[in-house]
Design a protein that fits this description.
The protein is about 35% helix and about 25% strand. It is of the alpha/beta class. Strands 5-2-1-11-23-22 form a six-stranded mixed beta sheet. A four-stranded parallel beta sheet has the order 15-14-13-19. A three-stranded antiparallel beta sheet has the order 6-7-10, with no helix packed on it. Strand 17 and strand 18 form a beta hairpin. The radius of gyration is 22 Å and the shape is globular. The N and C termini lie far apart (about 50 Å).
Length: about 425
């Protein structure tokens, strides 16, 4: 019987790992590779702010897990992990229901020899009163599409009213990390596009966007030399940026800060902080931290079970030489860890007891997209050091990150065809999703 590799989570890291292992071990029959996810399709999470604004049509950029599995010699199982039996080496999946509430796929269990958990993260509202009830989140495609639907509803309602008075729409975004910053710029771009298509009852200058950050500056996880020009650009676009403002309560029509400010908003987005899914906390006795991340060793094996690996946002991986800090929850870290696990799992199968390699995070820089207006960031390398980029060149590098993700999943030829298709689509479709 071939080695059973079970990967839970079809995000960027988990999907890339399943694809690469399928092309090698699965194709040669050396392992049975199975990917589990609660959805049938995948979309790259860093694009969700574009889905929310309508700049990206998610149905055109989604990947189908069933087709990907067929093309790359792995198996796909639809389901959401709910439990783990480490003794029997199997996981439990909950039943999947259709829109009528009827069972589509029943509860079941799947066995493994090597289990990889890559279930990503969700937004952390830190228990803020009213946040869960009154804020939208951007963790999934469905949530991003819900925001876009509500945004479009405001415009269509104002357009249909035929009112002589200029309507206004207010959007408040909590968290000035990459998601919050990129969403603010994308919404400003969307306002101009909607007006260009005739939905001008709400003028671009009357979309009031407020970005709220508890820390002293925007993009707190990135170097200050990136944060400063981003802050300046956002204010130039008309975005109100509030720093040192921690939200203490959210109501139906407003956000209230601990500093005594009230921000009125019809649409409220929470984009501050992350935590791993709740089911990971104390899962079958595995060690986890305060935000539910599984504690792993540098080999990415969990601290209490050598047969279970975890990586990406759901794993707390120590970063050597960083005074107890963990690897940051970034897409480039998940990509690097997936590459390491391809080697590690091959060694587990035919390495004859060789020690597994250890992961060391390499920071290749950061790029922030400000929609069509600009992009800002830095690239880091052994030869170039740190190089600051801004404008069209930074935008080119930013777009290339998504193309690299596609290359890992589809290969060079299909990625080139997708790029050609995108180019043709720009001339035949509206620049903004209008439904």
């Amino acid at each position: 019987m071939s080695h059973r590799i079970l990967i839970v989570g079809g995000g960027a890291g988990g999907l890339e790992l399943a694809t690469r292992l399928g092309r090698t071990l699965g194709k040669r029959g050396k392992a049975k590779v199975t990917l589990v996810d609660a959805n049938l399709t995948h979309i790259w999470k860093p694009l969700l702010h574009e889905v929310a604004a309508g700049s990206l049509n998610s149905s055109e950029d989604e990947l189908n897990y069933v087709a990907q599995a067929k093309w790359n010699h792995f198996e796909f199982q639809l389901g959401r992990m709910t439990g783990l039996d480490r003794t029997e080496q199997r996981i439990s999946l909950s039943a999947t229901l259709d829109e009528r509430g009827e069972v589509l796929v029943p509860e079941r269990q799947l066995g493994y020899d090597s289990l990889v958990i890559a279930v990503g993260s969700t937004t952390n509202d830190f228990g803020t009163a009213g946040a869960a009830e009154h804020c939208l989140f951007l963790d999934t495609r469905e949530q991003a599409e819900r925001f876009h639907s509500q945004l479009l509803s405001h415009y269509l309602r104002a357009h249909a009213s035929q009112s002589d008075t200029t309507e206004q729409i207010s959007v408040a975004i909590v968290g000035a990390g990459a998601t919050g910053v990129e969403l603010a710029a994308e919404l400003h771009h969307a306002a101009h596009q909607l007006a260009a298509y005739g939905l001008d009852s709400i003028r671009p200058e009357n979309m009031r966007i407020t970005l709220i950050e508890a820390g002293p500056r925007v993009l707190p996880a990135l170097p200050e030399r990136i944060g400063k020009p981003v802050h300046k650009t956002l204010e130039g676009l008309g975005v109100t940026v509030m720093t040192n403002a921690s939200v203490s309560q959210v109501t139906r029509d407003a956000l209230h800060t601990a500093q005594g400010d009230t921000i009125t908003a019809g649409l409220k987005v929470w984009a501050a902080g992350i935590r791993a899914p709740a089911f990971l906390k104390d899962l079958a006795g595995l060690e986890s931290n305060r935000i539910n991340q599984l504690q792993v060793r540098p080999t990415l094996q969990t601290t209490r079970d050598d047969n279970i690996f975890a990586f990406g946002d759901c794993a707390a991986c120590p970063q050597p030489g960083s005074e107890g800090r963990n690897v940051p929850p970034r897409a480039q870290a998940a990509h690097q860890q997936a590459s390491l696990l391809v080697k590690s799992l091959k060694l587990r199968i035919d390495g004859q007891g060789q020690a597994l390699p250890e992961y060391r995070y390499r920071d290749y820089g950061s790029l922030i997209s400000l929609s069509s207006f600009s992009a800002i960031g830095n690239l880091m390398g052994n030869l170039t050091g740190s190089v600051m980029l801004e404008g069209w060149l930074a935008r080119v590098f930013y777009v290339s990150l998504y193309r690299m993700h596609q290359m890992a999943l589809y290969g060079p030829l299909r990625t080139m065809l997708l790029m050609l298709s995108d180019r043709i689509g720009r001339s035949t479709e509206p620049r903004l999703k209008l439904h």
